[in-house]
Amino acid sequence: MSSSLWPAGPRRVLVVGIDGVRLDLLGQLATPALDQVAAAGFLAPVEVDEATPTMSGPCWATIVTGVTVAKHGVFGNHLGGNRLDVFPDFTTRLARTHRRRTFAVGGWDPLFLAREGGPLFAAPGRLAYIGPLEDTPEAWEVCDERATAEAVTVLTGDDDPQASFVYLGAVDETAHFLGCGEEYRRSIETADARLGRLLAAVRSRPGYAEEEWTVIVVTDHGHLDQGGHGGRSTLERTAWVAACGPGLVPGAPVQPVRHVDVAAHVYQALEIVPDPHWTLDGRPFTPATAPVPHPAGA
Ligand SMILES: [Zn+2]
Asked: Which residue ranges traverse the bilayer (predicted)?
């Protein structure tokens, strides 16, 4: 059988999902890698919409499918009853429909395994599940470290994925165990160092000068001071997205950024026009200098 993969072209996308990072604390922390992405593009708040519980399951499902809970049907951290077969994540859709090489890695079971109603990432071209040995902040740091190492290997190797998703979970676990204190802040800085290694891996690619990379960094929800989420408080429902890449200029997007926009932007970054039958609810990020449309007839 000959390979029927689509020729790669210059476009590539890396999405890094860091679970449970509070926007209000970022300004007090050393996050040089995230700052690089934001300086080349933007870092914008995202409000988890009214219909979506501020839980990881539904928020990540919205982020990677580009449709809201009304369509993907993930309402909690048990993903059962979902409609992900109709509204797949972008790594699965790109692999199945567009014959692109895709990759997803991380350690939270329902995202990667047929457990708890998962997986969210049904069939990327390459999938790596690296789970924690126990549910503790320390074990999750080990897990994130190994997921980062695996991602660096894949991003610099022969697989050459055109769209990748890297999940980091230690920050959220730390908040649940210890609240949003010193350990939580250090965990965010550690996650940023891992993001830095992923960015360095991308830049080290032999073909990097000819490639056009989009990088999106995103969190799913916030946390109460004592740790915990699921409610509608400002701290819980405030998430954020940072992104840079072709078509994005430095500065705040013209339109507010939503979780559904992430997958829509991934498709645009790969120059794929979504089929209307996908009924995406998201739209690509609107760059800072995009002209504001005039009202009809004006
Ligand atoms: Zn959580």
From this structure: none
Confidence (pTM):
0.95
Residue pair 163/91 in contact (Cβ under 8 Å)? The answer is: yes
Q: How far apart are CA 234 and CA 232, in angstroms?
A: 6
Query: What's the mean pLDDT in 263-288?
Result: 96
Return the pLDDT at 6. 63
d(CA 87, CA 73): 9
Ligand 1 center to 20 CA (angstroms): 6
Domain 11-278 is of which CATH architecture?
Answer: 3-Layer(aba) Sandwich (3.40)
How far from chain centre, in Å, is Cα 134?
Answer: 24
Task: Find out whether 62 and 71 touch, Cβ atoms under 8 Å.
Answer: no
Residue 1 has what pLDDT?
A: 40
Tokens of 133: 């040995």
Instruction: Report the separation in Å between the CA atom of 172 and the middle of ligand 1, taken as the mean of its atom positions.
Output: 5
Domain boundaries, the chain: 11-278
Which pLDDT score is estimated for 289? 79
Q: How far is the CA of 229 from the centre of ligand 1 (A)?
A: 6
Q: How far apart, in whole angstroms, are the C-alpha atoms of residue 65 and residue 85?
A: 11
